[in-house]
Structure formats: C-alpha cells, structure tokens
Specification:
This protein has four helices and no strands. The radius of gyration is 18 Å and the shape is elongated.
Length: 97
C-alpha cells in the first residue's frame, strides 16, 4: 500500500513537472526510473520478510531497485549529452514530410 501511494505521488509530480518544464523526449522515463528506484529501495529496506539471501548486506530486490536507479541516472546523462535539434532543423524536417 505504501509503495502504491508513493508511485501515485511520483506519477502526479511527474505530470505537473512535465506540464510546466519538461519538453525533452525521454525526460519522463528518466525521472520515473530514478524516483521509482529510490522509492523501491526505501520500501525494501523497511520490509521485514525474507526476500532471498543477502548479497553484501542487501536483499536481491534492493539490488534490483539500485539497478533501476542507476539505469535512470545513465539514461539521464545520455539525454543531457544528446544535442537537441534546433527549431530551424525541426521545422525543415516537418515541412519535408
């Protein structure tokens, strides 16, 4: 229940953020991966049930959450390096199709 509520809050905040600030393709996916990974990691740390043998002190589900978080960070870094097309290029491409 806690994770569902957290995911709803993440969804709502992403919608508001993207409506006001987000204009780059892939930005929503990047932010979702980062915040859902953080949420899942926090939820897994507080769970009391057995989820598999720990590896370096963390359960397998915590490692999965860190993998999701890391993939969101890498994806975000690649988005920042990617050159956005200028308005002239975008207009020319739209007019040619």
């Amino acid at each position: 229940l806690t994770e569902s509520l957290g995911l709803f809050v993440i969804f709502f905040l992403l919608i508001v953020y993207l409506y006001h600030f987000g204009r780059k393709p892939g930005q929503a996916m990047c932010l979702y991966l980062i915040f859902s990974g953080l949420l899942r990691f926090a939820v897994d740390l507080h769970r009391g049930d057995f989820r598999g043998p720990p590896l370096w002190g963390l359960a397998p589900t915590s490692w999965t959450a860190l993998l999701v978080l890391g993939s969101g960070i890498v994806y975000g870094a690649r988005l920042r390096r990617k050159k956005a097309p200028s308005k002239v290029e975008a207009t020319a491409k739209r007019d040619n199709t």
